[in-house]
Amino acid sequence: MGLPVVDVFIAKATVVVWAYAYNDSDALIDPTAIMVTIKDPEGDKVVDGEAMTQKKTGVYYYYYRTAEDATKGIYTGEVLVTDGVGELAINTPVAFSFKIK
Q: What is the reported pTM?
């Protein structure tokens, strides 16, 4: 089963990807790293592990600017939240999708 499409954008739109990082007590925290990857409808990476920008503690965003001739269809993505380093790092991938029409 695929991810439900949350938002639909027209080509040449700016898609904003938001991410929120929480600890086990539901408090917003700053992880070691938070990266975003986006694939177009053909499965080609259009964003490959880019760092997200911090707005405030635990709140991050990334602007993906589409072109007027952007491939139409469903884009899939993943935000990878990493807390810690090396073998002790905890990696939490979170999937998302959006549609360009």
A: 0.89
